[in-house]
UniProtKB/TrEMBL annotation, chains A, B:
Belongs to the isocitrate and isopropylmalate dehydrogenases family. LeuB type 1 subfamily. Catalyzes the oxidation of 3-carboxy-2-hydroxy-4-methylpentanoate (3-isopropylmalate) to 3-carboxy-4-methyl-2-oxopentanoate. The product decarboxylates to 4-methyl-2 oxopentanoate. It comes from Maribacter litoralis. SMART domains: Iso_dh (SM01329). This is 3-isopropylmalate dehydrogenase. It is an enzyme of class 1 (oxidoreductase).
Amino acid sequence: MHLDIAVLEGDGIGPEVVAQSIKCLRSVEETFGHSFTFKNGLIGASAIKKTGNPLPKETLKLCKSTDATLFGALGLPEFDDNPKAKVWPEQGLLKLRKKLELFANIRPVKVFPSLVKQSPLSKTQVQNTDLIIFRELSGGIYYGDKSNDEDKNSATDTCTYTESEISRIAHLAFKSARSRKKKVTLVDKANVLETSRLWRRVVRNISESYPDVVLNCLFIDNAAVQMILNPSQFDVILTDNMFGDILSDQGSVIAGSIGLLPSASVGLEHAMFEPIHGSYPNAAGKNIANPVASILSVAMLLQHFKMNEESDAVVAAVLKSFSKKIVTPDILGSSKYGTNYVGDFIADNIM
Amino acid sequence: MHLDIAVLEGDGIGPEVVAQSIKCLRSVEETFGHSFTFKNGLIGASAIKKTGNPLPKETLKLCKSTDATLFGALGLPEFDDNPKAKVWPEQGLLKLRKKLELFANIRPVKVFPSLVKQSPLSKTQVQNTDLIIFRELSGGIYYGDKSNDEDKNSATDTCTYTESEISRIAHLAFKSARSRKKKVTLVDKANVLETSRLWRRVVRNISESYPDVVLNCLFIDNAAVQMILNPSQFDVILTDNMFGDILSDQGSVIAGSIGLLPSASVGLEHAMFEPIHGSYPNAAGKNIANPVASILSVAMLLQHFKMNEESDAVVAAVLKSFSKKIVTPDILGSSKYGTNYVGDFIADNIM
Ligand SMILES: CC(C)[C@H](C(=O)O)[C@@H](O)C(=O)O
Ligand SMILES: CC(C)[C@H](C(=O)O)[C@@H](O)C(=O)O
């Protein structure tokens, strides 16, 4: 198979981790006889520095014209700390998700048996955790009308959802549950928010078309507790953009490091693959960042294109790195292996 | 001192836990020579069932005319599961907070040395945790314009903050930090939300008047992780209504049970004291609910009225119940002590 892949390295540790993913894709190419081409685009702080724009037109065009996008990470603290800034790196990612209509961000959270000890939670709590979060990614408070009125000294964000925005991701979640443990948990704040009440109504209606799947509803405050206390109760979690952002980061506590969790952002026409972690600027250039989240995102990319055997081979190589303890220091504080070495090991073991 | 106290038991386990708090206040009355009068009001599901209104006028009048309100818990699942309901229990609490202008919800999270083992997190992680959350309580997305348009099949919630809403709670947070570890962490999502950017601007300005206090900013997704990984890094957390709801529930994971965490909701004229837990309907009437969150809310009430010795005496009695293992089953699964027995023990040990 031939795939054209847009590569957006972004900021901080982005370039380093993406470099390892490309090694892995090269290895898949060779082992399985595919052909991948990689085309780089600018995004985030590095794009602002070079062009003034966190998402230059060329980048958007590139992502629209390729088969898939591999994204690293973005953001730099110098932008967070400037409340008067008119542009900042995250706007690039948010705009890209919107323009590509990537409405579903799929974030699996698994506990790898060989890493159970790395989780700060107890073994009984986390073992058997195998959940997947379907986070709505192109609507909600991230994209509603906003204002920040310096004169009135007030600011507003608006959260809007329509039935169709909810139903398209809900169907994906129910379909996924069908091939898994047949349980969907809708996370919302229906005792306070009207948008949550709409989510409940729409999702309940849809659930009637999936009689083999059980639907539960949980308030976000309780869900944030349950994710830690008893994560193995979950199968598929379905939630909105903001709640999904919070809950999926919490998933990293279960897995043992935020450097382990991949994601796929999908729409009807486009798909992007990105670690859930940020740009971690303090680690940039130090060869200590964990490349596994990016590499597992590549496994999701391969699966997306039905290259299941290839995807399994990437996951198997990652598991081998765990069992041989070829891991970065976020996993084993005492580890002497760097980003590059771990990337090489995994790429070499894709077979 | 004489205090008139409005008592709103609410639903589920509300009445049972509040009954223990009243025992404790009676004991304080006797031991320290005060006089407290208690006047009951309806709220929540029980108010809806009797009057059709989750916050009957008389209840609001009662809370306005008394010195403080002691609140239990509210909510029943039959209301959550009815998306067409026009009234539901939580509206009573939200309206009460708004009408009493309780703009700051203060939620301390402490790990009691004798309960460290009860936390699902490791001892090294949680020990030394002593943080306090200042959650804005009468603004934000809880109270902005809402709509739910059945024809258009769309719903909207609006989050608005003004400078003055932010600044009044920010001052409380900085003042509290001054008497503590001198650190305020503002939790927001300033890389996405305009309201968060306003929070950052206002809070940064205010921080200049507190040069002895260090201000940090953290994104909510990261904060939700840090609350679990390394809670002892925090001193005072300052955040908006929705993020505060989520983060403070997470605090219960640190403490070991949601049945342990009290809160004070304060405004310029009124104050209400309430456990952070919900109505836990499955436990209602079974004499298993933990009364400690409600009793520690009483300790916050006493402190609010500068009865510091009295407040300390209540806390000391609670600590004694922990060290004697006179605790409910949420703390020690094997515990044979019920709500009533624990309440009696604590009340009897206020001295
Ligand atoms: C960088 C930021 C805008 C982004 C988000 O909030 O969606 C990130 O936290 C994520 O989860 O992908
Ligand atoms: C009952 C509910 C409306 C309430 C809230 O979200 O504020 C509760 O979760 C709390 O934290 O006090």
